[in-house]
Amino acid sequence: MNQKVWYNSIAVLHVFGARGGLPMRDDADHTTDTALCLDSRRIVRDLIRKYGWALLSEDELVEQVLGPAEAGIPPAEAKRLAKHHYAIAMYEACRQAEDQGRREQGYGELSRYLFRAAYNRWPELAEDAAQRALLLVYEQIECCRSPGTFLAFALYKLRQAFKQEQQARGKEEVEIEPEPGPGSAEGDGIEAWMCLEDQEGRRQLLEAIQRLPSDLQRKVILFRFFEGLSDAEIGERLGITANYVRVLRNRGIKRLREDKRLTAYFKGKNSDEGRGKL
Question: Which of 126, 133, 191, 225 could form a disulfide bond with 152, CB atoms 3.0-4.6 angstroms apart?
């Protein structure tokens, strides 16, 4: 491993802990811990405002992110956990039939989430693609086998819906990256890999990222999926165009899917759990 990759490995493992779990920190440093708790609450508040989430209150989501001990965690991890726990709440709201009002609220929030994602990429087809994706989610919600990846599952359906809308209009298809991951037979997207609660699985993923041949590919993947930056924000940080960021991201995702060690791990895990192939 060259020196640059080694430094990247240390930086990533510092964020997620030596064993892929919570970050390494000094529990006696109460000042730092308090600051991280405040950061986590701010991140939760920003997400709730950004997406109009109301299935969980700010306090409820903060409690799920930090846990009963309210131990501080890094911002990137707080954002990942907030989306993970809210995805579970949204999945449960959409899947149940006892509380029709809550179910409608869940699908309403999901509709806005999908439209926002679609508009950012395909503004001319955003409304139709989002509606078609919502129908796909409604019809195939049982295919989402990991509630914490429900938002990633919905985004995968959005990509399917966009392609269907293009075909319905007789337009030339725009190539969009396939992003299957663990959790369903069809795949929930690489976002699902980032939401793994399995610490060993996340460690395997981080090691696979470090095996990517290009330093820029590694940075793009980490910025996009661990820090949640947009292509434009990544491009600004790296001094490259957003289009080139997308190229690097697609190449990185393709190589991760072809990584033999990572694929072998998930195939073995899915086989043990009776979930089929990656």
Answer: 191
